[in-house]
């Protein structure tokens, strides 16, 4: 994984968007580390929108409509819950700097959340950055069975309907691979990114 420290130069929302447009994204060593470093993986995770796969069991669960799916009604809360400890995640890279930057991007219309609600309770969600015809997924959380999965399905349907070209997952996991996520070399990713950046910003919400 290629990476470099950002140093002490402040990262602004404009700098962050520029970084995404050329294939970089920030991370922190931990929630307590105020510094960020830029990441540019040798192999980049993406989900090809035309090869997105939904299992029969998940499709059956979706038909039961277990959650109300909303967009951008609780962005800050989604970020907070993505940063919380969970059985499969004992630590987080989402520090206060990242919280501040992405909430700023949200206010500028470039960061978005897809949320699963059970009554008045937020039980699952994901967030990421939209730029050009690309959506860069950042993190997701689930407090109910299938909640984050259903949010991901909604995200892909939303992107397809609006003409997005690229769904970037940064890395692949076994979980994401069940949906069709693949690794592509940095050079191939650069071509996909260039095509997505050549488009005007597509309204997400």
Give your account of this protein's structure.
The chain has one domain: Aminopeptidase (3-Layer(aba) Sandwich). The chain contains seven helices and ten strands. It starts with a strand and ends in an 8-residue tail after the last helix. The protein is of the alpha+beta class and 205 residues long. Strands 5-6-7-8-9-4-10 form a seven-stranded mixed beta sheet, sandwiched between helices. It is globular. The chain has helices at residues 13-21, 56-63, 75-83, 96-107, 147-162, 174-177, 186-197, and strands spanning 2-5, 25-27, 37-40, 43-46, 68-71, 111-118, 121-131, 134-142, 166-170, 182-185. Strand 7 (121-131) and strand 8 form a beta hairpin.
Present the secondary structure layout.
Elements (H helix, E strand, L loop, with lengths): L1 E4 L7 H9 L3 E3 L9 E4 L2 E4 L9 H8 L4 E4 L3 H9 L12 H12 L3 E8 L2 E11 L2 E9 L4 H16 L3 E5 L3 H4 L4 E4 H12 L8
Parallel strand pairs: 8-9
Antiparallel strand pairs: 1-3, 2-3, 4-9, 4-10, 5-6, 6-7, 7-8
């Amino acid at each position: 994984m290629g990476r470099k420290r950002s140093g002490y130069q402040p990262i602004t929302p404009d700098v962050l968007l520029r970084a995404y447009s050329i294939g970089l994204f920030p991370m922190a060593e931990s929630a307590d580390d105020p510094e960020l470093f830029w990441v540019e993986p040798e192999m980049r995770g993406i989900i090809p929108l035309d090869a997105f796969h939904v299992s029969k069991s998940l499709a059956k669960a979706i038909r039961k409509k277990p959650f109300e799916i909303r967009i951008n009604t609780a962005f800050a809360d989604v970020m907070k819950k993505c940063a919380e400890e969970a059985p499969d995640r004992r630590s987080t890279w989402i520090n206060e700097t990242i919280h501040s930057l992405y909430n700023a991007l949200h206010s500028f219309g470039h960061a978005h959340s897809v949320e699963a609600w059970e009554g008045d309770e937020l039980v699952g969600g994901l967030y990421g950055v939209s730029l050009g015809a690309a959506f860069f997924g950042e993190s997701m959380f689930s407090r109910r069975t299938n909640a984050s999965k259903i949010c991901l399905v909604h995200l892909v349907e939303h992107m397809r309907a609006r003409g997005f070209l690229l769904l970037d997952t940064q890395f692949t996991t076994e979980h994401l691979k069940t949906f069709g996520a693949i690794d592509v070399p940095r050079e191939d990713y650069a071509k996909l990114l260039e095509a997505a950046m050549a488009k005007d910003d597509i309204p997400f919400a």
